[in-house]
Amino acid sequence: MQTLVISGGSSGIGKATASLFAERGWRVFELSRHGAKESNVEGKVIHITCDVCDEASCRKAMEEVLKQTDHVDVVISNAGYGISGPVEFTTIEAAQHQMDVNFMGAVRFTQAVLPQLRAQRSGRIIYTSSVAAILAVPYQAFYSASKAAINAMALALANEVKSFGIQVSVMMPGDVSTGFTDARAKSTAGEEVYTGANKAITTMEHDERTGMSPRQMAELFYHIATCPNPRPQYVGGFSYRVLCFLERLLPKRFVNWIEFKVYS
Question: Which of 7, 77, 129, 187 is catalytic?
Answer without folding.
Answer: 129
